[in-house]
User: Fold these one by one.
Assistant:
Number 1:
Amino acid sequence: MNKLQFFLSLLFISLIIACVPSKETEQSLSKKGAYDPDKQPIKQAEFLSCGSSFDMQMHLIAFAEDMERKKVMYNSEVFSDCSGMFIRLLQSLEKECDQYDFLDPKKARSSRDIAKWYYDQGNFLMIKDARKIGHLIQAGAVLFFGRSGKEYDHLNIDLLTSSQGIEHVGTVTEVVKDGAGNVVSYEMFHGRSTGKIAQRTSYHELRPKRKELPPFGNWNQQLVGIAYVITPKK
């Protein structure tokens, strides 16, 4: 093998290596089946950064406090159910983060429509085992829950976006961690249910006091999906 042939061989090998995606360059949020924490790395920072001077958590808390002061009752006005309150939150972010993609509420109004929109953007994960995804829960995480009392074992986007799937959505504003830095509970802002105002709740625990309740659930609603409030443009 002469020097030219040797050089071309090295160049060919380097090109092959360069075309193999590393874990760091994999799609941040997979659209294939339920999330496997051992196989699918997540880079939440890509979905929660809106500029160096913008504090996502402070914005979420300020928005929640404003809604709580107004005491907006569930379904008492336009955009006052769970998905409607979430759309209001998105609209407040859109004013600050115009470099990101936001859903059109005329096309994605229900919690299931919202989940499908995030899924189509590559910013949605189905949750197989909520006990393993505490590291994904942080301020700015959008959490989707199934029907009250229903257990989900085999998840797919068609099921979750059907009438038997997602029933509720809310946004994490704060988390509580144990001494080892693991998330053990979180606070979530959401339009709650009939007769209640939109507000933050903090009963969402990794190990609920009532053993029949699902981990990190919304009372008896299983956590089945997670997204992040802002979505990078494709």
Number 2:
Amino acid sequence: MDSAIANAPTRRPEAVVALLRMWAAQDEMDGAWRLAEILVRGIQPFLRKSLARYAWLSPDAREDLARDLALRLYEEWFAGDGQHAFWEIRFWHCLRLRIIDLLRKGRVAASDLVPGAELIETMSGVSGGALQQPDVDRIAALALLAKLDEPLRRTFVMKHYAQFTDDEIADVMGVSARTIRNWLQRARKSLSEMQRR
């Protein structure tokens, strides 16, 4: 068991999950938990990179999502049923789906969203140095976005940057889906008018 645990960081995560599930089924819980911890530590760089794309989330909200994801992974990996066996075949695909699922479940409160003044800085990803043309275009688009009223901007970002559905945005924002559609229409119209100026 010790050699399998020592070699776990160098193995494909699918193989580690298969071993973890086998040990859990055989009631070798100490080894299974050690493998789970290795897996969770190993996905941290991927998780940080994935959640950084959701710049409209505050850092605290990203930490909460990472913690919720770890709990969900433990539950699924230790489930005795065959429902979660897909982890043994397509680990990274399953991980991406769990991240999206957590984002879409409305675990994000409106207070967790980044306010407008910080939006350009966090979403531009440009920190010093010479700006390339795509960077300039992106910053110009974000500057226009930051000029929108708070609910319009948040709605637009959740729809077009995070690919939330209208109903999911409505849950997060605490309004009806019809209001979300109205806000999206107003945001698009305002952005179009600002771009023409």
Number 3:
Amino acid sequence: MVILGDNKKRSAPHQALHWKDVPAFYATLSDDDPTQLALRMLILPGVRSDSINNMRLGQLMSSVWIIPPLHVKSRADSDFVFDVPLSKEHLHVIELAKKHSRNGYLFPNSTGGPLNKMAMRNFLVDNNIPARPHGFRSSLRTWLMDEIHCEEEIAEACIGHVRTGDEAVDAYKRSTYLPKRTPLMKEWANFITGNS
């Protein structure tokens, strides 16, 4: 029998750009490269890479992107979707990406399946960008607190954290705060693109 000691390895937060540096980085991203367009789409709503990698045209409903439970962390075993409000910039990126779409995927890989899960990360590493895809969620979340002074609950909902972990509370609290998130996502997009 082997007895293992305490795990002394600490998890480190994902590398992230300071929110003030996001607009300059965003401005360098191409209008024609699927991986760079995927990064733009990742930065705008602050979603996870898996949602972007598996983003399908059929998930887009006018001004809302409906992410199915399978691609929303900790919801694969439930029927909860995550609705992402789309700004003008989101819709612009979607239009640019449509010419690359294959088999319904907005950001396909070379064989027409979902974008490789390492594609965005590899782009950042290869270009010496001191951030990782997941870190842009931190950039958005920090901007919401530093600049907007957003309520904690709404800021968490903006990045898809709508569960409290308390089963009793979560059973009754079902709002995703979409009406409150919509203007915040538009303001973030305007900030990123320099239109604020």
